[in-house]
Amino acid sequence: MLHILWAIIKFILILAGVLIGLALAVILLILFCPVRYRMWGSKDRGNWEHARGTARVSWLLGLVSLRICYQDGKEKHSLKLAGISLFGKKKKRRKKKPETDQVQSVTAPKKPVSKQTDEMPSMPTQTEEKLTVSMHTDSEQTDTASGNRKVKEPPAPKPEKSQSSQRKGFFLGIRAKLKTVLQRIRTFFKKLKNIRQTFAHIMKKAKWWMGFFRSEEMKEAFGLIKEQCTGLLKHIFPTKISGNAAFGCEDPAVTGMILAVLGMSIPLHKNCIQVSPAFENEESFLEGEINMKGRIYGIVLLRTGIRIYFNKNIKHIINQWKHKEDLNYGK
């Protein structure tokens, strides 16, 4: 009995060790096996519809790869796992339709049209119609005459108001108007008081926010985030860039301005892209080709996130941000 129980425990421990080892292997692969990418694009003179480009992202020595292609205004993509495509556009085979036999058209015989033997009902004559119309008009005239004979009753005389009631109503109207004027004055002063309170509240908010952004913790946290983000961008940026570009505009001044802007990008690509401007050209054009590739390590992303999250200044700022309503903006 004991050896059976020991065998079960041993099996469970071996299975747990295998699972933990697989999890550690996956984590190490994600952290230390880079994600590689490569991009290529080209454009000839003419419309952008003739532009071409491809982008490929691979991981674990190409075991997992994603490929996106653009050509002739159409986009294609595919995802492969160990060379097996998981999804992507596949060409559908056209099924050959069987040849249909020619069917001769046969004209159906026309049926003879049978003559109508039934007699049409007799239509009323014009004299009968005139008689009916005249009878209707006579009846309408009699109805209107009887209605006009009714005598309208005179309206009942309105009771005259006494002078005392008129004076009383006059004074009551003046009193109501005075009440409305006083009520409006009171509401106006209340609004002024509310405006003063809201303005003071806004000033306190602005003062709190200015102190929040000018604090030493905010300055140090901003410097840390800037440093870590610039290092991360340098890591993500392509390691190799090559290409050439030729462009020209109708106005040579515009071509010179574009060339000056492109000169500012030399520190990024380290003069690996050759640019040839055309100052004497009748129409605007752009053509060229570019190729770049790089890699991204998961450990670099994790290190950047840990340094930012566990910084004491950033924690202090997050705490202040969460409890800004409890602090009531420095009241």
From TrEMBL:
Lineage: Bacteria, Bacillati, Bacillota, Clostridia, Lachnospirales
Organism: Blautia ammoniilytica
Matches recorded under Pfam families: DUF2953
Stretches for region Disordered: 92-166
Record protein name field: DUF2953 domain-containing protein
Membrane-spanning segments: 6-33
Keywords carried by this UniProt record: Membrane, Transmembrane, Transmembrane helix
Keyword check for Transmembrane helix: yes
Composition-biased stretches (Basic and acidic residues): 150-161
Entry superkingdom: Bacteria
